[in-house]
Amino acid sequence: MKILVWDVPTRIFHWLFAAAFALAWLTSDSDSWLNVHVFAGYLMLGLLGFRLIWGFIGGRYARFASFLYNWKEGLAYLFQVLTGTANRHIGHNPAGSWAVYLLLTLGLLAGLSGMVTLGGQEGQGPLAPWVPYWAGEAFKEVHEALASIMLGVVVLHIAGVALESWRHHENLPRAMVTGLKEGTPDASTPSRRLVSALLLIVSVGAGTVGYFSGTPITGGEHEAGHKISRSIDPRETPLRITETPYWIGKHRDIGAAVWQQPQVGSRANCVACHQDAEKNAFVPARLPRA
Ligand code: HEC
Question: Pocket residues for ligand 1 (CB within 6 Å)?
Fold first, then answer.
């Protein structure tokens, strides 16, 4: 018979966490999406806070104690999966539990390093007063590396789920939606709807509070000026705005062909790309088309 294995909070966490990661990944490339990117990051951190608590007080199969496997058991299990001899697990199997621990740890580190990057590079968020510009730039590399490793683990996780679903003729993604799996009544777990309502409020709330606790990113003169000036090392005051670390960092990826276009002409011709530069608002940049 079908019994409840994944309680409601665990399922909500799973899909919201996946959605937040996807959103953060998709919005990571452009400054125009920085607001959304930062919100997705805070949402992930809020969700993680919940999941860490839920790992101790949550339902039967959500507790860390129910899926503590050492690396030997994990490797042995992976080997069995490949040879087709792995046992079916009603909760997390050893390989799945590895994915959980890795994704939680990587998500936490990616979120925290993102806050350091935001504080250093953009002078925004709670860490801004403590992180100098150069440290933000350095942490950006760490942040991106963590996110890429995380994407790798997600891919492996999806591959593992697909393989296990096929081997045991069991639709595991659907089980993470409905919570139901084949089993005996004594193996089921209560659904905990009340806690899931709380989870939604707390995690989305934490995301929103985290997001609004920093200066909202809207590009006015003041903000662009502030960001640029805090990137300058006082010992070597640059003569031009285009020599400041912040400016260089923001325009590094623009190809030589763009700079050579007749509409641009010079780096100082801000209006060529920042159509509203005359109003001193620098956020939306549109590259001129050839
Ligand atoms: C060739 C086009 C081009 C020119 C010329 C240009 N920029 Fe930019 N600028 C961009 C692009 C593109 C971005 C966004 C980079 C990104 O999305 O990561 C940007 C980003 C910025 C940002 C960051 C916006 C934010 O809040 O994240 C500031 C500030 C800025 N430019 C100021 C200037 C100033 C000042 C000048 C003139 C001295 C200038 N830019 C000249 C293309 C240009």
Answer: 30-31, 219, 224, 241-242, 250-251, 254, 258, 264, 267-270, 272-274, 282-283, 285, 287
DSSP string, the chain: -EEE-S-HHHHHHHHHHHHHHHHHHHTSS-GGGHHHHHHHHHHHHHHHHHHHHHHHHS-TTTSGGGG---HHHHHHHHHHHHHT-PPP-SS--HHHHHHHHHHHHHHHHHHHHHHHHHHHHHS-STTTTT--HHHHHHHHHHHHHHHHHHHHHHHHHHHHHHHHHHHTT--HHHHHHH-EEE--GGG-----HHHHHHHHHHHHHHHHHHHHHSPP----HHHHHHHHHHTS-TTS--SSGGGSHHHHHHHTTS-HHHHHSTTT-STT-GGGT-TTGGGT--S---PPP-
Prediction pTM value = 0.80
pLDDT, tens only, 252-266 = 888 888 888 888 888
- d(CA 166, ligand 1 centre) in Å: 50
Q: Which residues of the chain have pLDDT under 50?
A: 216, 219-221
Q: If one looks up domain 2-213 in CATH, what number appears?
A: 1.20.950.20
What ranges do the domains of the chain cover?
Answer: 2-213, 221-279
